[in-house]
Design goal:
alpha/beta; 7-stranded parallel sheet; 8 helices; 7 strands; 16% strand; binds NADP nicotinamide-adenine-dinucleotide phosphate
Length: 251
């Protein structure tokens, strides 16, 4: 049986984060549904509580140290010490390198890398005290390089190095750290990409599906399922890995 723990999922108001929060709640964990705007988390929290689970909404900016500290205070007070952390919050600011602004470079690094660093640093204190922890970081197939995503691909490659280092440093405390690198997942993020390139989202999905070995695009639940495995008790010997969840060897 799964032991009930406290989990934090960042960027959980929608998309992959929302599906992951719901899945971890269904697995028996109390879940802090964290996103920039606490009100935007209401839908995810309601879906969890309607299904008999336990969740709270937490408004925080993962790239802001004070905001992260306040979020952890709330989670510890309301749900108990978190021992599962899913660093999922993300943004895209795509452009070709010669047109990419420094602000768009910094924004992407701030949410993905600084955000994962601040959240994980705050979480490891509780995990080391508990002698148990599961850290899952969202990378991307874009880590292998993707036109128009110099900032995002660098951040997602950085997440992989960060994850492997966490695995090495924290393993002795019963903590595992792994990364999931999704391919095309049908969310608002990929809808925004379709809009940027001027293709209707349905056509973008159909075109992308043809290029994917399993002949479909991914759904947020595909990633939630993989997070559920990595967060489980039984996955304690899986650490420092990057799992490509992309319907094939890569996107
Ligand atoms: P999404 O639908 O855009 O959701 C991302 C969520 O993160 C949004 O609710 C967003 O809030 C939140 N967020 C952004 N900045 C934040 C911050 N500073 N602090 C807290 N929350 C913040 O994205 P998704 O498609 O579900 O992607 C989730 C993760 O998977 C991301 O890390 C993404 O890079 C990765 N990923 C996605 C795909 C894909 O195909 N969709 C593929 C590979 C990797 P706002 O709405 O307020 O901005």
């Amino acid at each position: 049986m799964t032991e009930s723990r406290t989990a934090i999922v960042t960027g959980a108001a929608r998309g992959i984060g929302a599906a992951t929060a719901q899945r971890l709640a269904a697995d028996g964990h109390a879940v802090a549904v964290l996103d920039l705007d606490a009100e935007a988390c209401a839908g995810t929290v309601e879906a969890i509580t309607a299904a008999g689970g336990r969740a709270i909404a937490v408004g925080a900016d993962v790239s802001d140290e004070a905001s992260v500290a306040a979020a952890f205070e709330t989670v510890v007070a309301e749900l108990g010490a978190p021992t599962i952390l899913v660093n999922n919050a993300g943004i895209i600011r795509d452009n070709l390198l010669f047109k990419m602004s420094t602000a768009d470079w910094d924004a992407v690094m701030g949410v993905h890398l600084r955000g994962a660093f601040l959240m994980t640093k705050a979480a490891q204190k509780h995990m080391t005290e508990a002698g148990f922890g599961r850290i899952v970081n969202l990378s991307s197939t874009s880590a292998l390089g993707n036109r128009g995503q110099a900032n995002y691909s660098a951040a997602k490659a950085g997440i992989q190095g960060f994850t492997k280092t966490l695995a090495i440093e924290l393993g002795r405390f019963g903590i595992t750290a792994n990364a999931i690198a999704p391919g095309f997942i049908q969310t608002d993020m990929t809808a925004a990409t379709a809009e940027r390139v001027g293709v209707p989202f349905d056509d973008f999905i159909a075109f992308s599906a043809k290029e994917i070995p399993v002949q479909r695009v991914g759904q947020p639940e595909d990633i939630a399922h993989t997070v559920s495995f990595l967060a489980s008790e039984g996955a304690g010997f899986v650490s420092g890995q990057v799992i490509y969840v992309a319907g094939g060897p890569k996107d």
